[in-house]
From TrEMBL, chains A, B:
This is Sepiapterin reductase. One of its GO terms (cellular component) is cytoplasm. The keyword Plastid does not apply. Its main location: cytoplasm. One of its GO terms (biological process) is tetrahydrobiopterin biosynthetic process.
Amino acid sequence: MPGGTLQPFWGQKTFCVLTGGSQGIGRRFAIEFGRKFGKESVLLLLARNAQGLQETRAKVLEANPDITVVCIPTDLAKGGAELFRSVIINGLGEAKAAPGDFQLAFIVHNAGSLGNVGPGVAEMNDSEEWSEFLTLNITSTAVLNSEFLKVFPENSVPNRTVINITSLCAIQPFISMGQYCVSKAAREMFFKVLAEENPSLDVLSYSPGPVDTDMTVSIINNTRDAKARQIFIDMKEKKTIVTCEQTTERVMQVLSNKKYKSGQRVDYFDEGY
Amino acid sequence: MPGGTLQPFWGQKTFCVLTGGSQGIGRRFAIEFGRKFGKESVLLLLARNAQGLQETRAKVLEANPDITVVCIPTDLAKGGAELFRSVIINGLGEAKAAPGDFQLAFIVHNAGSLGNVGPGVAEMNDSEEWSEFLTLNITSTAVLNSEFLKVFPENSVPNRTVINITSLCAIQPFISMGQYCVSKAAREMFFKVLAEENPSLDVLSYSPGPVDTDMTVSIINNTRDAKARQIFIDMKEKKTIVTCEQTTERVMQVLSNKKYKSGQRVDYFDEGY
């Protein structure tokens, strides 16, 4: 808004929950977001891998010693409302802070699994496997998000921002990646509805592009789709694959520029954001 | 294909599985589809409501006494691969038929629940509720579909057609209908991937428009969104709401004209199909 008093997104006293912070994009988000958080911010890192979380924590504190970083080793798929609420409340407790102490309440739904990449969806007939996959990627996201917004209700802080890490797979079908596509499409719709229902929230679905992570390696090793495999191999060889650093920088610009409409999807390659 | 020998969709000896056939659109589909099936076709009706299924069956046989209609009262959310497979195999058994006896293998994924319509997605923090909803609307669809295609693999019959009953909610967020939107978005993506992975299949996501069913009544009674409620009330009063008969006729034309690309979504109001 020209002439307006646009609050800079970064530098605020922030309470941030980040899922999947033990590796890959999540770790880079933690470090770079954390570096830009205002003094006495709190960063809550959730992931299964306790050692990975501790390594992330050390790097974040190296980047910004003026914030509190709390690691919560937890399997999101096994968490419910009570666990998630207590995790957030304990995070506040460790920092001796109350919700109203912050300028920005910020949650980054980055955790997600690739699902079964070997067979096609016509072959996937295991109900248990489907249910576990959907619980991790949809249910736990919905419930954690709900608990976060209960701790930080409307007017509790000046700004509330929710990011969903999405994928091209949310809007385009990919052979051999059916579960991943289904979960990403479902999540993007979830966050669109969230935005529609809560005009006071700022909701962004950010698609990080084809990023060089363990997930990419897993696609290369497991996909049945020779074309997709070759595309990823070529990108890695020609170094045209996006790095964690590049996509982190991009999403930070997108948040800072704030040219998206709440609920919208923005891709790494989209111009004008 | 001009000049080609396009097989008419209706009138073939068909093996059809239809979910949610005890009421509403599903019942109308059963009757009108059944009326057009060739001699010795088999229609397998799955739904929870046993009495509703029997009533549907009687109406189908009235419309076409030359086919076999098998009712399977079952809670799809509780079914797994084994149950679904045995249901299909038993259906073949009752008709003393083998998969290869048919010209068309046809599955209609019509069952689906509206989910929780009262609260917004930010308030829905019940993991059990989310999981049950996703199991019924996504997992059971995926697993039943897989078992159907195992009984009718590529080249087992000349034509294999899969319909997913979708909604405007699959592509547009609606206040107070978050779970429904999420499930419909997820299902549409599932069937897009299925089409991409299986070029020999014919896959259609059909959106029946705002149809006058119990589901509409439930939206009117439960939605928090006054605007949406009023739109439905107005449509009912002015009789501009789509009837089960109208939408059934439309989807039958769409299947017959076959102008959609496999995996595509076609809405009741879309022209040119």
